[in-house]
Design a protein that fits this description.
Length: 126
């Protein structure tokens, strides 16, 4: 029997973090049709992308001992009317995932849709 790479990766984090990551994964897979899930052990994150290049990434799950973040490629440019995105970097932004309810919120779904749209726009000009 083959071990699921994501579950193996998440096994070193608190149960709540793993539970939130798996729930968030389901939302990501639903909102980003055909997305590729890549566990990046050295970076301690899971990338969701449509190819092997950084520019083809839409979002990431970043677990830690304290919680889970949903990061967005070029998140600074995404519309965020609910002010969910955090961070002070020049490019990246993230949402601190705090509850199961938040994972299934319209705000998270809208950010994922915006991330997908931004990816499509990037790829159309390359």
């Amino acid at each position: 029997m083959q071990t699921n790479p994501l579950k193996l990766f998440l096994s070193s984090y608190p149960k709540t973090v793993g539970k939130h990551a798996l729930a968030m994964r389901e939302v990501i897979l639903r909102e980003l049709p055909g997305v590729i899930e890549q566990v990046d052990y050295p970076a301690k994150m899971v990338a969701y992308c449509y190819g092997q290049k950084y520019v083809e990434m839409v979002c990431t799950l970043i677990p830690s001992q304290k919680g889970l973040k949903l990061g967005f490629y070029n998140g600074v440019s995404l519309p965020d009317p609910e002010k969910l995105l955090e961070g002070t970097g020049k490019i990246s932004r993230y949402v601190e995932i705090r509850s199961e309810k938040q994972i299934h919120s319209a705000g998270i779904q809208n950010l994922l849709k915006s991330g997908l749209q931004a990816y499509r726009e990037r790829m159309s000009v390359l």
